[in-house]
Amino acid sequence: MMFIFNGGIFLAGLVILGVGIWVTVDSDSLLNLVEKVVDLPDEVFKLNYVGYMLIGVGAVLLIIGFLGCCGAINENRCMLLTFFSLVLIIFIVEVAGGIVLFVFTDEVDQIFNNLENDVITDIQANYGKDPGMTELWNITMEQMCNYIFFMYLQSRCCGYKNYTDFYGSPFNIGGEYPPPCCHSSTGPCTSDLARISNVKGCFVKLVELLEENSIIIAGVAIGIASLEIAAMVVSMVLYCNAGKK
């Protein structure tokens, strides 16, 4: 039974570690766009540490799984107690993090509202003038929503919110919009075509993806929490039994 619990924790750690590495290595992600925007609130740049946090959590879970297996095999009370303590600490941190996100919802919304205004301002000032920024947005709009959460989505996104983000930008001087903002692959992307195509923004797409998979995400979170609780119970039972021998 202990092997099942620790195997699950080990696999969960492996997945989280993989996602963390992916987020950190993916230099063409939305975080690069965020860093190019001027005068962003300091809180936004804390998003850069998400990948490192996931790597840390994944690595800790891998170590915990290893300790649990070794402790169960050898009936080593020290390993079992260390395993229990680490799982308990992680469980408390997860619960505390969830509570903080729930309590400070208004602050999080304000951060994203400020982010939206600053990103759109940056697009209107530099898209079509700054080659690096323009290319980065083009890559993001074409590829960001293709592969995410290890799922393939036949979709594209346009700007941060929608095609109106590019209105007044250097690229828009001729009345054209970026090709990803139109479903038609032939001819220029005009205002009418962009309006009819109604391609959603990259941030909107990301939020919709999270909402559509909210049940799965919640299920995974509950499953991990249940696994952690069960692992703590089993490790404590083994710890007590080992002490009687």
UniProtKB/TrEMBL annotation:
GO terms for cellular component: plasma membrane. Pfam families: Tetraspanin. It is found in: Membrane. SUPFAM superfamilies: Tetraspanin. It is a multi-pass membrane protein. InterPro entries: Tetraspanin/Peripherin, Tetraspanin_animals, Tetraspanin_CS, Tetraspanin_EC2_sf. Keywords: Membrane, Transmembrane, Transmembrane helix. The chain crosses the membrane at residues 51-73, 80-104, 215-239. The keyword Transmembrane applies. Coiled coil: none annotated. Belongs to the tetraspanin (TM4SF) family. This is Tetraspanin. It comes from Poecilia latipinna (sailfin molly).
